[in-house]
Structure formats: structure tokens, C-alpha cells
Design brief:
The complex is a heterodimer of chains A (about 475) and B (about 120). Chain A has about 475 residues and is mostly beta strands. Chain A has three domains: about 1-175, no CATH class; about 185-315, Neuraminidase (6 Propeller), CATH 2.120.10.10; about 325-465, Sandwich (Jelly Rolls), CATH 2.60.120. Chain A is about 0% helix and about 50% strand. Chain A is built from one helix and 37 strands. In chain A, a hairpin with a 5-residue loop joins strand 3 (about 35-40) and strand 4. Chain A starts with a strand and ends with a strand. Chain B has one helix and eight strands, in the order αββββββββ. In chain B, strand 6 (about 90) and strand 7 (about 100-105) form a beta hairpin. The radius of gyration of chain B is 18 Å and the shape is flat. Classes of the chains: A mainly beta (about 475), B mainly beta (about 120).
Chain lengths: ~475, ~120
Amino acid sequence: MQKLLATSTAARPTGSPPQRRLFKVPSGPFAGRLAALYADSPSGIKLVYSNYPYNNWSAPITVTSDSSDTPFSACIDSSGNIYVVYSDTSHDLKMRKVSFSGGRWSVGAASTIIDADDSFRPVILKDSDGKLWCLFDHHRLSYDGRHYVRAKSSVDDGMTWGTGPADLGTALSAAWIDPVYVSVCLGIARLYAVYCVNHSNIMLRICDLATSIWQDESAICQIDSIDDQFDSAISGDGRLGVVMISSAGGVRLKEHDGLTWGGLVEIEAGAARSPQIYYAGSSPQIIFMKHTGNGYYIPRFARKSGEAFDVEDASPAFGAFDKVFVFCVAGSPQYQDKTAAAASSATGDIYHSDSQALLDGAGDCLYLGGLSKFNRAAAVLSTQGSSGVVVWEYWNGFDWVQFVPSSGAYHFELSDILIQFWQDLSVAPAEWQVGLINGHNAFWVRARATTGYSIKPVGTQILAGSKLDDLALVR
Amino acid sequence: MNITLDYLTGNRKWLVRDFTVWGDAGTFDAAIIATEDLGVSTVIFLRELLGGQAQVVEYTDLVDHRGNHLPEVISNPTIVIIPKNGAAAYLTGSPGNMSFAIAKAPGGSIEPVADLLIMEMR
């Protein structure tokens, strides 16, 4: 399913891959409820929630309005209380407890974690003893101008951190010129801080929770330009997994079995972003956005199968269409299958061989078919059309029904556009039915020319692509 | 406190007989929020069942041993699986108030058939 929750003017509304924004209430009468946090503006953080099957979401609850326009994070405890950590407008680090009682969340007062110099991109976690841990990028402007990964903790539910806001906490990393990025996860009696320094070095420090002593820093791997494009998780049997994507591409996984690190495994080659990892038992489940060309991405899912990984599209609503036909009234044959050409990013290969165009005269059609419903098409043209007019239609089981895409009318006059037929899948027409076109059953949307073109459009790539980024997997 | 009402509505139990499990143990229920920049940034919720055939069961689709449909919502449910044909099954994740997900244990050659004892824990 796919549901629009909000619009936002924040720089990164759903944060950074190592951070946490989506939670499931783990127990009690509201078990299974989801709570999502996002930045709705440069200074505002909101919470919305929904019960299964998550079709209807609550009105937004304001968590804070004094955040800086930088990614924040949160965690949930066994009672459903949510702890939100963020950098405020002075770049001090703050925490708010959003208490859960009787099915409602209420926002508490802010406590200051650290007010010395500037702090960014925090992560937070509550351990099994109820102790809160916050790890963050501490930019020591007043000292050496360098960035440090630091950790602070609170034993009084976040009211006091260390000895107070001036306490710097524990420096986990050395001093670095450029920003540092950190993730945190909880193992059996251990806390794992996985962080990226100097853009490319993924490092680890482990804290023994019984003693609160951090082991020495160790290197996990070095890959060019990771920055915040990584995530970490712990399996039920204590396995630590770190997934990462470099700016050069390639989704890679490194796992630690408790004793030694395994090799760096490439899960999928090519440009990608926004990795997330989660363990189902001892099996890593990885989701990321894969670049399909021309600035469009589709969600992909990888899971371990034996020693290798099976990788597949994560959603039938995104990706290549199952069937694409161009229909030319004057053509012979009239239908031509352009499914492969539409999926590829090869320039100017989507056209009917008789008209040499995607669409030419009145009555010509472009058919987009999916085995599941879809709500969009990313269209990249090598030649933009001129003076032609199309109507968009879907099949309702009896007839074609005209509609105007929610993103506005489009007549193939722009060379690169993401056409949103409907705002999201939840508002796609219920009467949209599978139909038979040129021998193929699918959910069809077609663009039908009602006025011919003076300059005929030619397509490069047409698929259900997205510009999705900053995935936050439920925790 | 209404003791009579609590007595009548609390600790309800249902026995669902001969329930066939076909869900794949590999199923991963992926709920995600993400940002999409379409000129205006939008916050999108996505949910997909990945990696196998999910068997998500809504309580209201079940019929108990007396022939009555279960209620749509069960508060704080617990489910006990009673195997009947030697094949094992288990719940994938915690049961929700309106549904639960169930899967056959890996390696089994037959589809498990089980009685389900569903209890409302108040």
C-alpha cells in the first residue's frame, strides 16, 4: 500500500538512514499501532499514528517547534513511550518524551542533553535496564572546530543527561574535520555504536551495559563516500549487520557473528541510496532505493537465501510496467510491444515503427499495464511533443474512463516528468479493473491522442519510478 | 468499575478448529516512511509484505467452534497454536488487535493444520 501522510518544507522530512522515525507499539491493547514522526517544516516535528491496516492516519500531533532543520531521531519503549531527540535552533541537543497512555500520546517538556558547542544528527536508544543512550555528532566549534561522535546517557528517563548539559559525555571517535554519522543498536547486554567518519570509514565501538565501559574503536571497513548512507541492526542471535552504499554505487553488507567479521558482500551493483536493514531471526532483510536512470529510483528488497541474496522489487506499484504498448491507428500492426524499451534508459527507443513516434495522429495511444494497480509514470522523452493533446483513461471493466492526473494535465510536451495519476494508491479508483489489451490482461492506463502532433514525441524511458529518499523502516 | 461488564467482556476465548496454514515463514512485513521530492516534499507511507506468501488473518474472517464469527477487534490478544497434523506453524510477530500473521515452520513438506485458541488478555 501507499499513502500520502503529509507535505513538508523541511530539508529532510524523514531523516537520515541511520536514524529511526517509524515505530510499532510492541505490546498492550494498542499493539501493532504505527507511529510515524517527520519534520513538517524547518523547525517543526510532528507525530501521526494509525491502527492496522494503516489506511487511516491520525491528525498530526506537534512534538516540537524549536528544531533546527537537521535530521532528528527517536526510539520507542515497551510501553509505547517515544523519545525524540533533535538539534534545536541553537544547535543544542534536546529530548522530548512523548508519553503513551490510554491510546494517546502526550508531549512532555524538553530536556537538554548537551548545550556545549553544536550537536547534530542524534540517535537514541533505551536499554533493557531503562537507561537512555544518545549518540550524536558533536561539532566542537569552541575548541578545535572538529567533529566527534559522542555518547551520553540518562538513568532518570531523560531528565538529566550525564552530569548535565555542559557534560560532553564520552567521545567515541577521534576528531574529524568533516561531519560524522552514527547509528546505534542494542544487542545482548551490549550497545553497538556504528559510525562513519572521514566520509568513508565505518567504525565500531561496543559498550558493555553491565559496566557502561566502551571497548576500543575498531574498523569495520573503508569504502569511498558513505557518509550517512548506512544502517545497522542486530539479529536475535547477536549477529551485527551493517549495510552501506557508496556514492560510486553498490549495496554492500558486512556481518559480525559475535566473534569475527565476515567479508564485504555486494548485494546489488549500481547506483542506490537510503539503505535499511532489519533481522528476521538471523536472516538480514535489506531495503534500499535503486537508481533506474534519469534520476528515478525504485524500492528494492534483498534477503539471504543460502549464501547468496535474493533481490527483488519491493513494491509492485513501483518499477517497470508489466506491459507497454504503443498503438498507431495507421500502423500495421497497430499494436507494438515496447515493454523492454520503456524499462531501459536507452535514448529514444520508445516509438511505433510506422509513425516513428510515441504518439502521432488522433486515436494513437500509449498503453501502460501493471499486474497490480499503480499511481504514477515517470516519463523521459528524447523528443518532446508539440501541439498534440491527449486524454488519460483507465479501464473500469466496461469502458474507458477519462481522468486528469493529480499532478496536472500532461500532453508529452515536457521531456522529463513524474506523472502522478492519483495522489497515492489509496485514492486510485476502486472501479479500475483488469482488462484485455492485445492479448494481455492488466490494470491499464492509456494516453489517447485527441489532437495530432506537429512535432511527434519519442520516448526514452517510461516506468513507475519515484524520487523516494530517506527510507525509515519500522522498528 | 462495572464488575459485571468486565466479567462479561473480559478474558474472552475462541477456539477456531482445523485452521490451515499456508503462509511462508520468510515473509517480511515492511512498513516504511519516506520522502519524495515532487517540487514539494511529501511524506509517504509504504507497506509491503515481502519475501514470501504472507498469511495475514483478520479475526472477523474466523469462525469459532460454535459457528460464530470472531469480533473485528480483540484487545491484547494471545494465540495458542495446537498442531493437528504434525506440521508446525508459528505466529510471525505479535498478534495485533484486528489481525495476526501466521506461517508454516521452515522445512515442512505439508501444510500445517491446527486449532487456534485465541484469548483476549485484559
